[in-house]
Amino acid sequence: MSTEPQSVKTLSFSVGLATGLYGISFGALSVTAGLDFWQTMALSLLMFSGGSQFAFIGVIASGGGVIAAVLSSWMLGVRNGFYAIRLAPIMSLPTILKPLGAQLTIDESNAVSLSQEPDILKQRQGFWLTGIAVFVFWNLLTACGALLGSMIGDPADWGLDAAAGAAFLGLIWPSLAKSKLLVLAVVSAFTATLLSAFVPAGMPILLTAFVAVAFWLVEIVRKSK
Amino acid sequence: MSLWAGVLIASGLVYSWKLLGHLVPERFVTSPAVRSLAALVTVSMLAGLVGIQTFASTDGIVLDARVPALAVAALLFYLRVPFIVVVIAAALIASLLKLLL
Hints:
The complex is a heterodimer. Chain A has eleven helices and no strands. By secondary structure, chain A is mainly alpha-helical. In chain A, helix 1 packs antiparallel against helix 9 (about 160-170) and helix 3 packs antiparallel against helix 4 (about 65-75). The longest helix of chain A has 29 residues, at about 120-150. The model of chain A has no long low-confidence stretch (mean pLDDT about 90). By secondary structure, chain B is mainly alpha-helical. Chain B folds into two domains: about 1-30; about 30-100, no CATH class. Chain B has helices at about 5-25, 25-30, 30-55, 65-80, 85-100, and strands spanning about 55, 60. Chain B has a two-stranded antiparallel ribbon. In chain B, helix 4 packs antiparallel against helix 5.
């Protein structure tokens, strides 16, 4: 990500802290939505996937009911499965570590690992360090947010929404040096944004997978010629 | 369904995706075509997240303080400014613009 590449440790710590700060807003919004402190903590410790967690409390807050909350967080979690498929051959985890590695398979850990391509060892290091850093900060700051509750106000006032976008941009930045991936990223961002106006939260991100599949098919057809 | 049951069942379901991806047989995921697809899907979804985090809101697509914040972030990444500095700068710009506008 820089001419003198930052160490994987620094990057992982930064990503963990930046993501953790978003945990404050999760904690605050969760208790405002009507969950108690321990239900909020259970989501951060056990579900541990920001998008799914925000979807769960969002549905509860809007009066959508528990079953709708379960279904939308489940759907939003699908992308972690795709990340796991990417990570599995890189990590080649022993069976005993797979359950732990699975729990740490989230946007950030996969993205930091991706940013270390093609070095396998750094990709592994990035995955573990980021997964652990995010887990620790996310849970600590969820607890703070849940305790402070509505005193924090709207997280957007602190610019945390923009910080999240910037963080994800930074993580895919190294991939964007390849013009094919740059085009894919622009088309995907555009598609997801456009779809967000028409389909329920979470679906736009899943539907971008079709953009990737289309690019993939074009690539295969080109190679076979 | 009680709220507690919902929290626990949803957590289990989200975890099942994560575990499922790790348990897909290795000979399947190590094929170059599958690996290339998984890499493309990753870039695609993360780019989708950038778009959503920057333009989407409960009122539809909006152009607000997040857009200039992301543009500055892109410029700073281009200038090879360290990650954490860029993220903080984006948050500062967005919160200042929200105060001013």
